[in-house]
Amino acid sequence: MLRQYFDIKKSCPGSILLYRVGDFYETYGEDAEIASRELEIVLTSRDAGKGKKIQMAGVPHHAVDQYIRALISKGFRLAICDQVEDPKLSKGIVKREVVRIITSGTISDPEMLDSARNNYLMSIGSGRNGYGIAVADVSTGEFWATQIEMTGNGNLVDEVSRWQPAEVLLDPYVGEDEGFKKTLERAKASYLPWEEVPDEAESRKILLEHFKSGTLEGFGIGDSNEAVKAAAVLVKYIRETSKVEASSLKKISVYSAP
């Protein structure tokens, strides 16, 4: 079972893996240390074979949402791993899979959100035409994009102040700006790099398929290459973390930054 746990853990780097075992979600090793410290739950250990012990900490499955909320509020990224077959019918180790990844910017459960404010996910890219910015709230379906001039990071700081995102995706160029990342930290926004940098054609294909449209012109974003790229990365990220289509984002609107 521990071999299965660590094999699954490798597939979701940067996430705390909540691994369903019977009536509990368990964490092991370094994840268990973090969970024990941040959730103030008991840290124990179990036999890992060959006389070795491994640390573990778990929470009851019926109360897992409150623990998820606590970890997300502290900026952690979570991978939820469930049993995907009936333990009574399985032969050997029960099959398990990551069914969703929860991040501060992709929460859609109303009970995990502050009803008084939006929960924005932001994507920032750069190119020859300036910065592309896309912002979405998956719980409300709001989806905005813009393109701004590349004149230092001051205008990016202004956009962070405007939207107050919970999570920000950064392209490699923007991700090298240590000063801007400190701005995000002060704003208590978690951030991570784009896993891939799509080219213009791929970005347009992602959005056209998402909106089931033959053109982007009707959305007003067709001529904004950097904004298109940032929006495509955001849609792809939501799909890959939530394990479902970003169905709440039915349209995209262009806004003008001052």
Written overview of the protein:
Strands 3-4-2-1-5-6 form a six-stranded mixed sheet, sandwiched between helices. A six-stranded mixed sheet has the order 11-10-7-8-9-12, with helices on both faces. Helix 7 crosses helix 8. The protein has eight helices and twelve strands. The chain is an alpha/beta fold and 258 residues long.
Estimated radius of gyration: 20 Å
Query: Which range does the strand content fall in?
Result: 25-35%
**Spatial strand order of the main sheet:** 3-4-2-1-5-6
Number of helices: 8
Mean pLDDT rating? 91
**First-to-last CA distance:** 55 Å
**Estimated helix fraction:** 25-40%
Could you say which overall geometry the principal axes of the C-alpha atoms support? elongated
Keywords summarizing the entry:
single chain; 12 strands; alpha/beta; six-stranded mixed sheet; 258 residues; 8 helices
Write the layout of secondary structure elements.
Elements: H1 2-10, E1 16-21, E2 24-28, H2 29-39, E3 44-49, E4 52-60, H3 64-73, E5 78-83, E6 96-102, E7 121-127, E8 130-137, E9 142-148, H4 154-163, E10 167-170, H5 172-175, H6 178-186, E11 190-193, H7 200-211, H8 225-242, E12 253-254
Parallel strand pairs: 1-5, 7-10, 9-12, 10-11
Antiparallel strand pairs: 1-2, 2-4, 3-4, 5-6, 7-8, 8-9
Helix pairs in contact: 7-8
